């Protein structure tokens, strides 16, 4: 996770963004800015339990604080210049074609 943040910073500086991604990770179900399908990881994985001085050490005792550990993030296509896959270097507009091809390969 982290591609979306890098892409936002690059867009602000007019720097092209190339994303390396296997085509099996392409999905039409993921929604930008939604937790509906995004997987959440263990919030304790974000906390360094060996650091006695960590301000997050006792986060569970604060009812107003819940660390959010996203397993992956969603990068809007508008921020990506091209996607490097095992098939080819593709523009983001080709993602639907890849999805249709995958469905055809699996007989769906």
From TrEMBL:
<dbReference type="GO" id="GO:0003743">
    <property type="term" value="F:translation initiation factor activity"/>
</dbReference>
<keyword id="KW-0648">Protein biosynthesis</keyword>
<comment type="similarity">
    <text>Belongs to the eIF-2B alpha/beta/delta subunits family.</text>
</comment>
<keyword id="KW-0396">Initiation factor</keyword>
<keyword id="KW-0963">Cytoplasm</keyword>
<comment type="subunit">
    <text>Component of the translation initiation factor 2B (eIF2B) complex which is a heterodecamer of two sets of five different subunits: alpha, beta, gamma, delta and epsilon. Subunits alpha, beta and delta comprise a regulatory subcomplex and subunits epsilon and gamma comprise a catalytic subcomplex. Within the complex, the hexameric regulatory complex resides at the center, with the two heterodimeric catalytic subcomplexes bound on opposite sides.</text>
</comment>
<dbReference type="InterPro" id="IPR000649">
    <property type="entry name" value="IF-2B-related"/>
</dbReference>
<dbReference type="InterPro" id="IPR042529">
    <property type="entry name" value="IF_2B-like_C"/>
</dbReference>
<dbReference type="InterPro" id="IPR037171">
    <property type="entry name" value="NagB/RpiA_transferase-like"/>
</dbReference>
<dbReference type="GO" id="GO:0005829">
    <property type="term" value="C:cytosol"/>
</dbReference>
<dbReference type="Pfam" id="PF01008">
    <property type="entry name" value="IF-2B"/>
</dbReference>
<protein>
    <recommendedName>
        <fullName>Translation initiation factor eIF2B subunit delta</fullName>
    </recommendedName>
</protein>
